[in-house]
Amino acid sequence: MAIPEQLPQLVDSCAGRIVIDHGHFEVFDPLALPPEGTDLFALAEASPPSSSADGMAVILSPLQNNFDTSVTIEFWSARPDDDRNRWEQTSENVLRVESGTLVIGSPGYDELAASAAPDTYILEVSGRGFVGYGWPSSTDPGDEWRLRLWPARTDTGGVRAPQRWHQPGVGAPDQVPFHSEVTSDSSTDATESTSWGFLPRTSPWDSVPAELYHVNGAVSLNEMDPDLIARLIRLSEGQQREIAWWCARRALESAGLHTEDYIITTMAKVEAGAPPPKLDDLFAWLNQ
Asked: How far does the chain reach from its first CA to its final CA, in angstroms?
């Protein structure tokens, strides 16, 4: 009598909301670092919509941003049923998790963390609800994402080809060529070389302090005055907030907005402890 094949089981799941900005987000083990010189974003653009190396994956989003994105994370015992027909974009990558934690988010914003048993997984990321490529004309356009992970050792087929979203009447953007000057080495497996993405150039992140890795615009800030940035990092949180407040006021004065009633009222509320206004509210005020 044949033993029935065991069906994939949903082991664990969680859901949350994150900010997606800059047209991409990352899925990673917080203790993992990609191989030196690896540019996962460039690799994802060259082979959209994703790339990965060791404990980190970069996923491109058709929309430039969604500041209130719904994300569901599911852990399975083996590859679950294929439901790509229900999603507009789907990609798979191999991801190694050693720390017991999986993190999702865009650089510079709060991230969503989930418990993940140490293992090497196949990571499937699916998205839907897109309104167009690029700026969606809102900071909450309504797209949603789902991550499914299962142990790679249970999947004899490996990662499957991606499914890109083709915007009706427009299509999908062209792939960005990935140029490498690395001399071919017949002793190196071509698939491994491509998937890990070793680059012959120095990354602009190489000189950025680790404390700035997830700060929006970290590379530009560090290039302006690395000595000043290093000193700011060593200041207390109270001193950093005081400097940030001064910078905000100077920016408003330079833009000629500091005398506007809306700005005066909003700044007073924030100074009293209220949260900053949403970008959509600021855009609405600026465009009225």
From this structure: 74
- Give a three-class secondary structure readout of the chain: CCCCCCCCCEEEEEEEEEEEECCEEEEECCCCCCCCCCCHHHHHHHCCCEEEECCEEEEECCECCEEEEEEEEEEECCCCCCCHHHCCEEEEEEEEECCCEEEEECCCCCCEEEECCCEEEEEEEEEECCCCCECCCCCCCCCEEEEEEEEHHHCCCCCCCCECCCECCCECCCCCCCCCCCCCCCCCCHHHHHHHCCCCCCCHHHHCCHHHCCCCCHHHHHHHCHHHHHHHHCCCHHHHHHHHHHHHHHHHHHCCCCCCHHHHHHHHHHHCCCCCCCHHHHHHHHCC
One-letter amino acid of 177: P
| Beta carbons of 58 and 5 less than 8 angstroms apart | no
Phi, psi of 27 (to 5 degrees): -125, 120
216: buried, middle or exposed (CB in 10 Å: 19+, 13-18, 0-12)? middle
Alpha-carbon distances, residue 87 vs 130, 152, 243 (angstroms): 10, 22, 45
The predicted model scores a pTM of 0.66
Nearest to 91 by CA among 163, 150, 145: 163
Q: Write the pLDDT tens digit of every residue in 227-281.
A: 888 888 888 888 888 888 888 888 889 888 889 988 899 888 888 888 877 767 7
Crossing angle of helices 237-254 and 261-271, in 10° steps, is 180
* Phi and psi torsions of 286, nearest 5°: -65, -30
- Joined together, the tokens standing for residue 215 give 């700060």
